[in-house]
Amino acid sequence: MTGVVVAPMLVALVTAVVTLLLRRRVRTRVVVSVAGGLGYALAVAALCWQVVLAPDAPGIATYQVGDWPAPYGITLVADGLSAFMLAMVATVAVAATVFSARYVPSSERRTFYHPLFHFLLLGVTGSFLTGDLFNLFVWFEVMLMSSYVFVAFYGGPLHTRAAFWYVSLNLVASAVFLVAVGGLYATVGTLNMADMARRLAEPAAYGIDARPTVGLLALLLSVFALKAGLVPFQFWIPTAYRAAPPPVTALLAAASKKVGIYAIVRVSFTVFADAAVVVRLPWIEPTTPLAFVGAVLFVMATGSILVGGLGAIDRDSIEGVLAYSSIGQVGFIAVPVAIAATTTAPELRRFAILAALVYALNHSLAKGLLFLAAGTVRHATGTIYFDGLGGLARHFPTLSGTFLLGALSLVGIPPLSGFFGKFLVFDAAVRADASAVIALLLVGSLLTIAYATRAWNRGFWGARSPAVEDATIDPVQVAVLVALALVILAVGVGFDPIYRFADAAAGAALDAETYVDAVAPRGGESG
Amino acid sequence: MSPNLSIVLLAVGLPFVAAVVTPFLFRVLGEHTGYAGALVALTTFVLLGSQFGADGTVALSWIPTLEVALRFTVDGWALLFALFASGIGVLIFLYSPAYMHGESGLIRYYAALLTFMGSVVGVALAADLIALFLFWELTSLSSFVLIGFYTADDSSQYAARMSMLVTVGGGLFLLVGLLLLASVAGDVLGGSAFDLAAILANADEMQAALRDRGLFVPVLAMIAVGAATKSAQVPVHFWLPNAMAAPTPVSAFLHSATMVKVGVYLLGRLRPLLVSHEWTLLFATLGLATMTICAILAVAATDIKELLAYSTASHLGLMVAGFGFASAVGAEAGVFHLFNHALFKAALFLVAGIVAHEAGTRRIDDLGGLRHDLPVTAAVTTVAALSMAGIPPFNGFYSKELLFEATVEAAHELGTIGWLYPAVAAFASIFTVLYSLRFLGLFFGSRPDELGDVHRPPVTMLLPPALLAAVAAVVSVDPELAVRTIVQSAVDVTATEAHEMHVGLPTSLSPAVGMSAVAIGVGAAAYPSYDRLHRGVRSIPAAVPPIGANWWYDAVVGGLDGASTRVANRVHDGHLRTYATWTFTTTCVLALAGFAAAHVAIPTTVALDVSLAIALVLLVAVVATLAVAIAPTHVTGVLTLSILGFMVAIVYILASAPDLALTQLVVETLVLLIFLLVIEELPTYPGGELATPTVGRDAAVSALVGVTAFLTIVLTTDARPEGATSSARYYVQNAVDEGGGTNVVNVILVDFRGFDTMGELIVVSIAAISVLTLLVMRSRGESE
Question: What's the pLDDT tens digit per position in A291-306?
Answer without folding.
Answer: 999 999 999 999 999 9
